[in-house]
Amino acid sequence: MRWRGVGTLVVALLVGLIVLGRASDFLVDWLWFASVGYAGVFWVTYGAKVAAFGVVFVASSALLWANFALAHRLERAHGPFLPATIDVRFSTARSLPELLAVPPPALPWRSLIGAAALLLGLVIALGEAGSHWDTALRYIAQVPYGQVDPLFGHDLGFYLFSLPAYVALKNWAFLILAFAVFGAAVVHWAHGGIRLDRRPVFVSRAALAHGSGLLAVLFALKAWSYALDRYLLLYDDNGVVVGASYTDIHVELPVLWGLIVLAGLAALAAAVNVRLRSYRIALGSLVLLFGAAFLFGVLMPGLFQRLYVQPTELEREAPYIARNIALTREAFNLGRVEVKPFPAAQRLSFQSLEDNRATIDNIRLWDWQPLMDTYAQLQEIRTYYKFHDIDVDRYDLDGSYQQVMLTARELESRLLPANAQTWVNLHLLFTHGSGVVMSPVTRKSSEGLPLFYLKDIPPVAAGGPPVTEPRIYFGQGRDDYVVVKGTVPEFDYPKGKDNAYASYDGADGVAIGGAALKSLFAWHFNDPNLLLSSYLTADSRILFRRNIQERVHAIAPFLQLDHDPYLVIGAGRLYWLQDAYTTSSWFPYAQPRPSGITYIRNSVKVVIDAYNGTVAFYVADAADPLLATYRRIFPSLFKPFDAMPADLKKHVRYPEDLFQIQAEVYRAYHMDAPEVFYNREDLWQFPRQPSSLDAPAASLAMSRLAPSAGSFVAADQASTRMAPYYIVMRLPGEPRAEFFLMLPMVPSQRENMIAWLAARCDAPDYGKLIVYEFPKDKLVYGPFQIEARINQNTEISQQLSLWNQMGSRVIRGNLLVIPIEDSLLYVSPLYLRAESGQLPELKRVIAAYGERVVMEETLTGALAALFRDEAPAAGAAPAGHQAGAPAGPSDARTRAALDEYKRAVESIGAALDALRSQLDALGHPPAK
After folding, report:
1. Within a 10 A sphere around the Cβ of 821, how many other Cβ atoms?
2. Dist. CA 206–CA 390, nearest whole Å
3. Rounded distance between C-alpha atoms, residue 561 and residue 605, angstroms
4. Mean pLDDT, the chain, as a whole number?
């Protein structure tokens, strides 16, 4: 009795701790959602989870209890050890425990059956309700898609919303049946109705009758399952067609109809066998149904496909390939792609460059990784500051449309020295980052370092937008909580030998002044200091979920997030813009991505205030049926896009993950003719980028890091294939330069360029996709071919060898393809890093056009070298001007470019002569 009491106490304590943990999580979530203004979203989500759990738990427990109780009653009614109609002739292993040979003594059946049903119901509810509560909400609030599938004529919304719910319900029913069969067998065995020690195994009439009833339920569920399998044919993939193929429609579909009828007849026979209790009927029904399913559902379609379809596969599959193409393009929103010809002519001139000055002035020479290293050395200021990412954006600065690179200076308190990582420092003193760094994409100093538009702490603007609130409490760093409005002043920024301090007066935070709330959060964060510290006051507030992606995910877990949130400066404040997607794996006929999705829309733009932590969800695609469904479920969550502040709306851009997914799909699905698609005659690929193994010795191709684990994009694409990049340029025939996301394309297994794909980022044409295709009979150098020509250039390779021998490390930057009018220009930066240093310097710019490749100190010098033969002669009147007429701005810039080119050539020659002299003196002649 004493040990029984101790055991009861331990169980009670464990249950109490679990309940307390759940209760604290609930209270903390409720307080946090209320503090960010989304209490309504919390109650809808929590209510749906509770309702789903309750329905599944009650239904599962009730069904299992009824089944177990029925087994108990049947055995009691018939009495133990009644002979069956005929023994089931299965033998058992001799090593079974003696317990199986002897029926157990009398047991408290009512309590045991109830406890078992409740326990199993709880297990099922925890597994099913937690993963399908949103499936139920989408089913209830579904919005029609407005387009029907070509086989059954159902609205596509049926596949996005109804079919997932039916499949989940079917799987739950089979799970209940499996537990019911196992539990009923245990009850019958405990009563002696099943004896495993006998040979043959003994089965009572009651157990056989009960088993027949459960078998009837199994057959009925199989009939329903076969009915659902008809719709699942639209997701089949035979390697040629995704969706219902010729064999699926002409063999699989009729077979499924036959199996539905056969399963119904088997269910009827099993129901009749409840009274007859014949093992022959039960076993015959099982063998007949599953034998027919294997013979007609597996073997016959395979033989039909191999012997009848494959010999004339293209002819028979062509209509179904067309369906796959049309619906895949619809699923990934490729219907908006506009295809235009691009002649790739060799007609660039100085005048062309002048006419496209906005494009030239925004050619990005700073790659992500070298610039990150430079920023870290020059602008992190202190060891506890960190730049997590560098973003590319555009701003109107000094009357011009400029592409810039910028990053937030966030605080990572974990980077403090180990002896300074006290609780007060981590959670009360070091609470926020400070400021932003911004530089133009093209310009550099004479030392090869970036020119800063924004720098230092507090931010100093030198051509960039002013920042009046530089503090960053919410960003991309670790999600540690901090407490504000305590008696300890918050560290703001270093100020000479002293420090500046501040006090948070933003909108975020949960009040933590009372003892009850301190206890709650101390329990939740497993941190008793929150309860014991004397630094907290009645006005103290706790800020948590400060990582912006975790913050957005907590509010809207049904949205998928782009891997790259980016920083925006608006009205002197710092904001994060996060692209969010609605996705589904249930779009019929669509080619699935490696992540499993078959449908995606960038339907939501999320804005997070870096100081206040406020989160606003703006509708970017009101036509998306998934988003329309979520707007029904959460009417207070989403705002119209027009409600976004105008200074933030100017910085909305086409997201990288979506563009890469669409480009991946478009590689094959630009082929809209089934015959061409079947033969893969015009399959495209992303261009290759040289890695450190492909480039010359000591040369490294720098590329942006692979997307995060939560991204849709396969990581290997970022390491060996060219990634999309943002660029400011003027499209052919357009009046002004725009901000684009673009990517060149090459034929599969080839390196020459075949097309380039661009996504427009500026209003009013935001979101439009354009593909410029090159003539099929014209060779256009691809990025990898241009890289090979750069490496083969004698002057460039000799210069790189000299630098590498002089204790520096040459870093080759990404090669950019720059469309200008109807021609292509190639530009690649080159950086030098001392072997003992961490500061990459932009030292040269490599440019290629036509058959020429040059390397100069500046972009202007490189362009002047490329087109020096086309430059006007000294003193000659430019075209369009009379002799003696004043030169225009274009002519002045041309002469300045030529002068700069001449000076660059002279300085390079002098440097080479000096290097040769030094090497000769050391007895090391320069490389030939």
Report:
1. 19
2. 72
3. 10
4. 87
Query: What is the H or E stretch that residue 491 is in?
Result: strand 490-495
Whole-angstrom CA distances from 508 to 410, 419, 608, 613, 759 are 18, 30, 12, 6, 36
Beta-carbon neighbour count of residue 119 at 10 Å?
A: 12
Mean of pLDDT values over 700-724: 50
When pLDDT is cut at 50, 70 and 90, the band that residue 907 belongs to is: low
Rounded to whole angstroms, the Cα distance separating 284 from 159 reads 36
Would you say how long the chain is, in residues? 928
C-alpha distances (whole Å) from 432 to each of 380, 465, 502 are 14, 21, 10
Contact predicate 148/157, CB 8 Å: no
If one counts every other C-beta atom within 10 angstroms of the C-beta of residue 239, the result is 6
Q: Taking a C-beta distance cutoff of 8 angstroms, is the pair 600, 582 a contact?
A: yes
- Per the structure block, which two tokens stand in for 295? 């013979």
- pLDDT of 439 above 60: yes
Q: Give pLDDT tens digits for 476-508.
A: 998 899 999 999 999 999 988 889 999 999 999
Give residue 192's region: left, alpha or beta (phi > 0; psi -120 to 50). Answer: left
Q: Residue 155's closest CA among 167, 168, 166, 142?
A: 142
Share above pLDDT 70 across residues of the chain, in percent, rounded to a whole number: 86
Of 378, 358, 359, residue with least CA distance to 450: 378
Helix axes 794-805, 889-922, angle to 10 degrees: 50
Q: How much is the pLDDT for 719?
A: 41
Angle at 301 between CA 298 and CA 305, to 5 degrees: 135
What pLDDT score was predicted for residue 899? 56
Angle, alpha carbons 784-785-786 (nearest 5°): 90
Rounded to the nearest 10°, the torsion over CA 557, 562, 563, 566 is: -110
**3-state class (DSSP) for residue 884:** coil
pTM of the model: 0.87
Tens of pLDDT, residues 813-829 = 999 999 999 999 999 99
**Residue 540 in 3-state DSSP?**
coil
Q: What is the DSSP letter of 881?
A: -
Phi, psi of 167 (to 5 degrees): -65, -40
CA end-to-end distance (rounded Å), the chain = 95
Contacts of 763 (CB under 8 A, 6+ apart): 649, 650
Average pLDDT of the segment spanning 359-379: 93
Q: How far is CA 229 from the centre of its chain?
A: 30
pLDDT tens for 142-183 read 999 999 999 999 999 999 999 999 999 999 999 999 999 999
Q: Are 648 and 575 in contact (CB under 8 A)?
A: yes
Give me 560's structure tokens. Answer: 């998928």
Tell me 591's DSSP state. P
- Please count the CA atoms within 13 angstroms of the CA of 693 that sit on its side-chain side: 3
Task: Say if residues 561 and 578 touch (Cβ distance below 8 Å).
Answer: yes
Q: Which residues contact 11 (CB under 8 A, 6 or more apart)?
A: none
Please give the Cα distance from 391 to 437 (Å, whole number): 11
User: What are the backbone dihedrals phi and psi of residue 38, each rounded to the nearest 5 degrees, phi first?
Assistant: -125, 40
Closest CA to 695 of 827, 788, 805: 788
| 535, burial (CB in 10 Å: exposed 0-12, middle 13-18, buried 19+) | middle
Q: Give strand ranges (E) for 730-813.
A: 738-747, 755-760, 769-773, 808-812
**Rounded Cα distance, 773 and 767, in Å:** 19
**134 versus 928: which is more confidently predicted?**
134
Q: Tokens for 379?
A: 């602008």
Residue with tokens 């209490």: 39
